[in-house]
Specification:
The protein has 174 residues and is α+β, with helices and mostly antiparallel strands. The chain has a domain of 77 residues: Roll (SH3 type barrels). It contains two helices and seven strands; from the N terminus they run H-H-E-E-E-E-E-E-E. The strands form two sheets. Strands 4-5-6-7 form a four-stranded antiparallel sheet, with no helix packed on it. Strands 1-2-3 form a three-stranded antiparallel sheet, with no helix packed on it. Strand 5 and strand 6 form a beta hairpin. The chain is elongated and about 105 Å long. The protein starts with a helix and ends in a 5-residue tail after the last strand.
C-alpha cells in the first residue's frame, strides 16, 4: 500500500511540473522577430544540362603507354604465303589476351625443362617453349632468366604474313 502511495505522489509531482499556463513569452518573441524579417526570394535551381554519352572509339588502337613497334620503312618487309598461322590447331587459353597484358615475373626449372611465370589474364601462368601467347599466334621460342622470346605471325597488309619477334622482359620487385 505504501508503494502505491509513493508512486501516486510521484505522478502528481510530475504533472504539477507540467503547468499548462507556463510562460512561452521568449518563444513568442522569437517567432515574432522571425516573421518581421524581410522576405528574401529563394534563388531558382540551376538549369539542368542533359548528359551527353561518350563512346571511346580508340579502344582497339595501341595503348599510348606502350612503345610503338618499330618498322623500317626504307626496307619494307614483304610477307610470304609460306609463313601463316595454323588455323587447324586448338587455341590455348593465353591466346585470348593481348600480349601487352603479360609481364614476366620469374622462371622455374625441373627435370622436365625451364618454365616462365607470366602475370596477366587474371593470374600467374606457367608457360614453356612452344606454348602460344597473345592474339597474333605468338609462339614462345626461348626462355632465359631475364626474358621470354616470342615470335608472332602478323599480316603484312598485302595478303601475306610476317614473323615479328617480340620479347617480354622480367619485371622485378612486383
Amino acid at each position: 500500500m505504501r508503494t502505491r502511495f509513493v508512486g501516486g505522489a510521484l505522478v502528481l509531482l510530475a504533472l504539477a511540473g507540467c503547468d499548462a499556463s507556463s510562460d512561452f513569452n521568449d518563444l513568442q518573441s522569437y517567432m515574432d522577430e522571425v516573421r518581421a524579417r524581410p522576405k528574401t526570394p529563394i534563388e531558382p535551381l540551376p538549369k539542368f544540362m542533359p548528359y551527353e554519352a561518350f563512346t571511346y572509339s580508340a579502344a582497339s588502337l595501341r595503348s599510348p603507354f606502350q612503345a610503338p613497334v618499330k618498322i623500317d620503312l626504307s626496307h619494307p618487309q614483304k610477307g610470304n604465303k609460306v609463313v601463316k598461322p595454323d588455323e587447324t590447331r586448338v587455341k590455348q587459353f593465353l591466346e585470348g589476351f593481348n600480349i601487352e597484358v603479360f609481364e614476366m615475373v620469374g622462371t622455374l626449372s625441373n627435370e622436365n625443362g625451364v618454365f616462365a611465370l607470366v602475370r596477366g589474364a587474371g593470374g600467374v601462368h606457367r608457360v614453356k617453349v612452344g606454348d602460344y601467347l597473345g592474339r597474333n599466334d605468338g609462339r614462345i621460342t626461348a626462355i632465359t632468366p631475364g626474358e621470354i622470346s616470342v615470335v608472332e605471325i602478323v599480316p603484312d597488309g598485302e595478303g601475306g604474313w610476317l614473323e615479328r619477334p617480340r620479347s617480354i622482359t622480367l619485371k622485378e620487385r612486383s
